[in-house]
Fold:
Amino acid sequence: MNFSSNLPSSETDGILRSAVEMLRKGQYARALQLLRPLAEFHPKLIGARWLLAGAYFEIHDYLAAQRELRVCIALDPGKAHPYVLLGRALLSMGQLDEAIQVLHRAAALDPEQQNTALILARALLMQRRSDEAHAITEPLIRKGAADPELLLLHSHALMDLGRVSEAIPVLRHLVRIAPTDREARFRLAAALADSGRAVEAETVARAAMVKAAKTPEAHYVLARALIGQNKLDAAETELREAVRLRPDYFPALSNLAELAWMRAGDVEEASAELDAALRINPWMHSLRISKAKLLLAAQLSERALSEIEQGLRLAETDLALLNAASRIALDFDSQRGLAYARRAQRVAPENPSALITLGNALLSVGQAAEALEIAEKLYQLDANDGQAIALQAGAWRMLGDSRYLTIFDYQHLVRAQLIDVPDGWMDLRAYLNGLKDELLRLHISGVHPIGQSLRRGSQVELDFERPTNAALRAFPQAIERPIREYINAIGKGDDPLRRRNLGAFRVRGGWSVRLRPNGFHVNHYHPEGWLSSACYIDLPSRIDRPGGEGWLQFGEPGFPTRPPLPAEYFLRPEPGLLALFPSYMWHGTVPFSGSAEEARLSIAFDVLPA
Structure:
């Protein structure tokens, strides 16, 4: 069909109406045949361009859809809907950064459009920008919006932020208003498992599995609930079923490897399923990184690096693999670690993970001035980034800059005092004995977990909100005064710690560690915390001996540096003592010797401003 430039408007409208009808019926190819000539002869006809974009989007030709949408925006930049569809097209092609920019523009043009907010929140969550996603969904929730997708995204943001207890009522409400929503039920079960309510999580997961297909996700969520109850045989069965149903299911494979490792401490047995999956799909780099973490837990650093390098032979510009290679190599070959870090930074020059990897590698070889430049760049991106603060402090220390002493002011910022005796106990010793009995009941594994700081010991997650044991239930009361006194003592100021002091606080997370003789924590920090802690419940006899066996140490980075930056400050544990310190401080423990039956038992948690 030929169109002239002076086509009557009535005929144009008729073509557009026909195209709309075709699109409604899913006849996208016919609509394109009708619209392309019209747009060619009338390049500024925004209606034709808009319908073309929609047709291209529906047939998944996202590049063509983008082209038409950019024309629509150029012709009329004040309309929100072309930005929304452009954002969706960009998301479909994995162009997250530009998609988020475009969707922000759409939201600014039409702030009342909830659908735009949902798409933007979803995109932000894909980038783990959970605080920004929460900032979008929370006002809509406050207004009483009850769209199921909104509730699901809001709960996702809360869980990513570690606010699981707030996510649970949102998910309960979602299950009530959308009783057939399978994902909502399994998310609720997962949130309950994460919050330590493993029995209820199992009940919810099993009920959901009765009403829905037994998917890999269902078996995985049920396994997490069973692990929370120490039903490890049953958990392993569920994880293996999840892997049988989906051989490349990363969460199940990763958890199965960790469960096998913590039960037997045999790295070959624990990696069997990971190896099988990698033989089928060697491009699954997330699995390869999990295998490397398992090897690191077994203190096989060179094998871990070799595993990552196998992946890099297949994908030499993969950012996650390059970052992992650099971090692993720093333990034994700093120049190699720096080479990988520079490759990662070339792949993603502005990526925060690539920047912190490069900064640490520079510090390891003594290039403190360049490391400081990286730290200051990261600090500008996020002044509360614990990684940036730790890197900046290390560079200052290496350069002899006095500013280091301000943020690593051990005398004033590392404080310790005895916890209170909560209601129901005669004295502190009685309370600590109650805690010890309950914690030892929970520490059934003899092997340290993968990806954590401890070596030669065990770690269990704790729930202080709904514990079944009276001693754990009383723990928040026991620690409240020392935390408040710490916050009051440090006061307010402009430094990275004090400027976040709002006077109120909330405890985030909780875990117990039981170290065996020769056990220790490798030096680490908590990049997402504000204050970190160590509360000592039971200690080995050699804790009193000279040399600091089992003591808490501060200041030494978690990788070798040139020149060395040894630990500068030590704190001697004692039963009932709660140590509090900035989360950005490097800290670890000195190994201790002793008989096999002795252990170093502690509770730790992070504190955030509230």
